[in-house]
Amino acid sequence: MRAILSACLLIITLVKGQSQTISGTITDLNKEVLPFSSILVKGTTQGVSANSKGYYNIQLNPGNYTLVCQYIGYKAVEKKIIVEKGSNQVVDFQLEQQQYNLQEVMVNSAGEDPAYAIIRKAIEKRTYHLKEVKKFTADVYLKGQLQLRDYPKRFFGQKVDFEDGDTSKRKMLFLSETIAKYSVEEPKNEKIEVISTKVSGRSDAFGFSSPQIISFYNNNIQVGENLNPRGFISPISNNAISFYRYKFEGTFYENGVEISRIKVIPRRKYEPLFHGYINIIEDEWRIHSLRLNLVRDQQMQLLDTLTIEQLYVPAGNLWVIKNQVIYPSGKLFGFDFFGSFVQVYDRFDLNPVFAKKYFDNTIIKVFDSANKKPMTYWDSIRPLPLLTEEALDYKKKDSLEQVRKDPKYMDSVDRKRNKFSLSGLLLTGQSISKQKKKVFVSFDPLINTLNYNTVEGGVLHFSPTWSKRYEGRKSLQITPYFRYGFANKHFNSHLTTRYNFGKKYFNSISFAAGRRVFQYNNAQPITSRINTYTTLWYENNHMKIYEANFFRVAHSAGIGNGLTASWSFQFQDRFGLNNLADPVSWKNIENRTFTPNYPIDITNAVMPRNQAATLTASLNWRPGGKYIEIPDRKIAIGSDYPSFNLSITQGIRGLLGSDADFTKWRLTVTDDLDMKLGGELSYRLAVGGFLNAKQVFIPDYQHILGNQTVLANDPLSGFQLAPYYRYSNTSQLFATAHVEYHLNGLLTNKIPGFKRLNWFLVTGANLLHTQKGKNYYEAFVGLENILKIMRVDFVKGYETNGPSPTGIRITLPFFLESRNDD
Questions:
Q1: pLDDT per residue over 721-741, tens digit each?
Q2: Cys-Cys with 146: which of 80, 288, 339, 501 at CB 3.0–4.6 Å?
C-alpha cells in the first residue's frame, strides 16, 4: 500500500510539473476579500480553496476548463479559461452577494414561517442523506493555525517568554499542514494515510492529521472532545424544532438548482445550540452549505466563539463535502487567541475497492519521511496558498530551530531557564536543564518537603528527579528519595529508576531499592500534606505507617490489539512503628485523642516484624483498541469498549526468608459511556478475593481507598466516607462498584439565574460487598465545573448493621499532591 501511495504521489508531482498555474484573488463587489472561498473545476470534485486573504492558485494541464467560484452567501461565478502550455494565468473573481427571492413565500394559516416546512422535509430526509454515501476515498488537505492577539507578562508567577526574540503581542502559536488519503466504509471503518505533514519550527513533529467531517445529518454534533461533553444539537436533528426557531430568508439558484436560505435561531440560551444560516437544496432537502456559530452562552467550554463553515458539491448523483473551516477564538487566563482549521477535500472515489483487511486497528498511519518533505514540494502541492504571515512563520521558526540546535544557543537558554526564583522554590518547583545532553533535573517546592505525623514528628523529605531523553521512546529517569524524622531521628532513603523503550509498542522497566516509609495500604490512601493538616488542627492522625527495607523490579509491555502485560516482584522486610510519647497538636479537640499507629479497625497491636516476597502478574485488555502508527512507534488512542484488568499476586513463603503465604486476585472493568445530550456515565466494577490466605499481613490485605477528610479522593476508585481500614479484608470473595453520572449541564441549564453559572450536576453511588458480611454503600449528589476546576458533593453512607455517615466532599485536583510512589 505504501508503494502504491508513493507511486501515486510521484505521478501527481510529475503531472503538476507539466501543468500550469491559474491564480487570482476572490473579493466581493466592494473589493473585500472572501476568505476560504472555493474554486472548483466544473463537472468534477477537483478544486482548491482560497486562503484567508482571498488568494488562490490551482494547477491545471493544458486544455479548456470552466472554473466555478463559490462562497457562502454569494452568487457563484463561472469563468471559462483556456490553459496553454508554458503560460500561467491570473483569473480574479468578484462575487455579488446572493439576492434571495421572497416573491413566492407563502405563510400558512397558522402564521408559521415557511422555513419550518423546509426544515421538516430536511429532517425527514436526514437519515437517508446521512447513510447515502456508503464508502469513499478522498484526498484531503488540512491546515491548522492558532495565533495570539495578546498575552500576560507573567503566568503563575513565571515570566511568559516564547524565546523567539519577538516582543510583539501578535504571535503564531501553531501552524501545520497535512496531505492525506482518507478512506471510509460504513458503518464504522475509517483509515487515514498521511502522505506528508509539516509543523512550523518542529521538523520532527507530525501535524494536525485527523480529518473530521462534521456531519449535521447526525442528531448530535461532536466538535472536538472538550468544548461540550454533551455535544450540540443539529439544526436538522429529529427534535430540532423543539430547540430552534427558523426564518426563511429567500431562495437562490445555482447551476439550475433552487436553494433555500434558512436563518437558525436558538429558542433558549444556555442550551447546546447553534445560530447562523443553513442552505437547503429544494426537492432533495439536503445541505448545500452552512455557516453556524457557537458562543459561550450555548454551554461551550474553553472558547468564547466558534464558527463552522461547510460547502458541499455534486459528485454524480450524490453531494460530497468540499470545504470545511472551523474558526475558534477565546480568552483564557489572559491569553487572547484565535485561529482557523481548514479541510479541503478532492478527488472523491465513491465506489472504491478496498483490499481484504485494509481496515484494521490502525486508523492513522504516517508514512516514513512524511515530515521530511522540502518546501518546494509543499509549494507545488498545497491547494490553499499560504498567507504572508504563515510563510514568514515557517521561515522564521525553521531558522530558529536550526539555531536552537547550536550548543552555544542551548547553553545560553539553559542559563536563562535555570535561574532560581522564589515562587519556584516555595510553590511551583524548580527545574534545571542541559538541552544539548537532553538532561533535566526537577525539584519539588519547599511547601511539599515539610510535613508532620505522630510517628516521626516533623518530616523533611527531598526527592529530585534526574531524567534523560534518547531517540524515539527511550528515556531514563532516576529519583533518589531522602527522608528524615526529626522526633524519632530515623533517616530513610531509597532510589527509584525507570527506563522507557519500545519501537512499536510502549515498554518500561523499573527498579527501586532502599529503606522507606510505607502506609499500611501501600496505595497511600491519604497524602502526607493532608495528614499533616488533620493531625495538627484536628488531632486526627489518619496515616498509619511502617518502615521496610525493600527492593522492587517491574516490567510493563504493550503487545498490540489493546493488550498490555506487566509483572512485578517485591520484597519487604517490615518493621512496625509506634507513636511518639507526646505528639504535637495545635488545637486540643475535646474528647479526642490520637489513635495508635496501626489500623485499629482490624488489629489491636503494632505489626510485628515480618518479611514478604510477592510476585504480581497482570494483563490489561481494551478490546477494539485503536492506534496511531508513526514511523517509529504505535500509540494507543482508546476504544469503544470497556477496559478489563486481571491481576494475581502470590506471596512466596520461604523465598529470601519470606513469611507471606497467600494468593489473591482481582478483575476490574472500567468504561465511560457517552450518552450525548444525556451526559456521561462512568463506572468501575471490581471482583476479587483470596484463593489462599495461610499467612497474610495487613499490608497484603485487600484494601479500599477510604477517605475521612473533606477533600475527596478519586471518585471512581475510592469511597468518600469510609474509614481507611475498616473494610480491609482477606475475604475469599469481595466486590466493589463505582458508578458516576455526569449530567454535563442537563437540568441545570433550565434553572433561571443558576444556569448562568454553567455548573453541572453529578450523582452516583459506591458499593462494597465482602463475604464476611462487612457491606458498605454510599450515594452522592454534587455540583462540578465550579470555576472550571472545583467540585462539591454531598455524600450519604450506609453500613450493614452500622452507622450511616454523611459529609461534604470537595474536589480540587490542581491542589492535591500525587499519591504515586515517592
A1: 999 999 999 999 999 999 999
A2: 339
